[in-house]
Structures are given as C-alpha cells and as structure tokens.
Amino acid sequence: MSVLLPNMADFDTIYELEDEEDEHVVSEEHLPRYCPEPVVMRGAGHITVFGLSNRFDTEFPSVLTGKVAPEEFKTSISRVNACLKKNLPVNVKWLLCGCLCCCCTVGCSLWPVICLNKRTRRSIHKLLEWENNRLYHKLGLHWKLSKRKCESSNMMEYVILIEFLPKYPIFRPD
C-alpha cells in the first residue's frame, strides 16, 4: 500500500482557492436588525425649569412588558424623581432671584440657575448610566436623558428615552 505524500517543502504553504461562485460577504453593519421605536417618558410635574420637569410619571408603559419588571422600572423612575426633588427647588429659588435682579445685573444673575440646571442634568445622566450598567444593558435596554421638541409648542423639553438595543443575528457563522 503506497501513500502519495506531497512535497514537504510545500507542506506549510497556504494557497488561496479561486472559486468561480460569487460569494457575497455582508458586514455586520449592513445586516438587518429588529429594533422597535424607543419609549419616550415625558415629564409629568407641574414645574419646569429650562425644559427639565420636576418629576416623571412612574406608570409602567405596556411596551416594556416582558422586558423589565414593573418594580424595577418604578424603582428607577423613583431614583430619578428623588434626584429632581432634591435639586429642582433650589433651581427655582435661584431662578426667581435671578429674574428679580436681571435688570440690574444685565442678565448675569441668571448664570447660577443655568449652572445648577446643568449640574442637575449631569447627575441624572450619571444616575441613568449607573442604572444602565447595573441592569438595563443586560436586558437589552438603554436609558438616557434626551432633549426633544414639545408636541404642543416650539419649546424644548427633557425626556427619558428608553431605547431597545439592537439584536445581533446569532445564527450567522463567525
């Protein structure tokens, strides 16, 4: 029984095969992904300072059924509302003082309110990032504070967007 062995010098050489078939390789960016529209949580409070409402509604949206537990959702919204409850009354007081002194200070008295509002937004961003890392990214969701145009007027408001992270096709070979 004789076995034909290839030339040992060509043993480690890698050759490219030229297929006559047209193979279309599609990158992951071009693969279709199912991603529903984000859930928009609008402010439900009666006071709004520079587009930031003093609270968000804790009512569980039906779109999130099966994605997140209603208790977790309510806890997250309650944390955001607690942050707003702590910071927004101070912002309102500074806004009133700034408006009273605005004529004398040529508008400079409104700077503390702008800075406090920015600090409040940053703290909500940090809180939502912590919530995302702790729970929601594992569930395929991403929460963020976003500026949107009001439906009723040309004013801008801050809303919480709950985005669905895209699902990657797992049946595609590596």
UniProtKB/TrEMBL annotation:
InterPro entries per record: CHIC1/2, Golgin_A_7/ERF4
One GO cellular component term: membrane
Chief location of this protein within or outside the cell: membrane
Annotated compartments: Membrane
Domain Golgin subfamily A member 7/ERF4: residue ranges: 54-143
Keywords: Membrane, Transmembrane, Transmembrane helix
Alphabetical list of Pfam families matching this protein: Erf4
TM segment ranges: 94-114
PANTHER family according to UniProt: CYSTEINE-RICH HYDROPHOBIC DOMAIN PROTEIN BRAIN X-LINKED PROTEIN, CYSTEINE-RICH HYDROPHOBIC DOMAIN-CONTAINING PROTEIN 1
Name of this protein: Golgin subfamily A member 7/ERF4 domain-containing protein
Source organism of this protein record: Perca flavescens
